[in-house]
């Protein structure tokens, strides 16, 4: 009992800095910090305090990195640019009109536009020109054509006027001694598209045969 009393008398009082009874300047012996001084005082804790060693730090860091990597992969997968293809399908019709000096033709073609992206593609401009024997005889320009939805295919009908003024071709097309007046027509197509905040140009050259001597309204495949 005497040892306990001795220890109690020898240990410093709460709120004092040493055993001599000097009052702690922080709390003035009350054991409480004044309200107006919370932002001015700094707490000192031992280096081995558990609050300085948060638990599962590595787990939280690894989980955050995995979530960020997963989200980045998803964004790249859905927003990565994919192909937009232009495919000719068939010649729907060829309308032929004879004038004294020319042969006027209206060729209607069916094309498919395929969008492999996960976003909508806007077709800004579509240009097509027809050539016979490497000579341009007709051009068509279409602006603000259409929009192709994500992961879809859309068919589009394009008409181009081809006036033939060459005397040799005029004679050939108007000749009554020839049953089928076959011409090999080259179509050069250029399509400007916009998606994912950038512009892209797609080009395609295709060849098809047409009859310049009579109307042909029976659809046939492009060769």
Write structural notes for this entry.
The structure is a single chain. With 223 residues, the protein is α+β, with helices and mostly antiparallel strands. 18% of the residues lie in helices and 42% in strands. It has 3 helices and 9 strands; from the N terminus they run ααββββββαβββ. The protein has helices spanning 2-10, 57-79, 167-174; strands at residues 84-98, 103-115, 121-132, 135-143, 147-148, 152-164, 182-195, 198-211, 220-221. The strands form 2 sheets. Strands 3, 4, 5, 7 and 8 form a 5-stranded antiparallel β-sheet that branches. A 4-stranded antiparallel β-sheet has the order 6-2-1-9. The longest helix is centred in the first third of the chain and has 23 residues, at 57-79. The radius of gyration is 42 Å and the shape is rod-shaped. The mean pLDDT is 84.
Helix content: 10-25%
Rg is: 42 Å
Largest sheet: 5 strands, antiparallel
- Summed over residues and divided by their number, the pLDDT gives a mean of 84
The secondary structure category is alpha+beta
Number of E strands: 9
Through-space gap between termini: 114 Å
Low-confidence stretches: none
Q: H/E series, N to C?
A: HHEEEEEEHEEE
Strand content: 35-45%
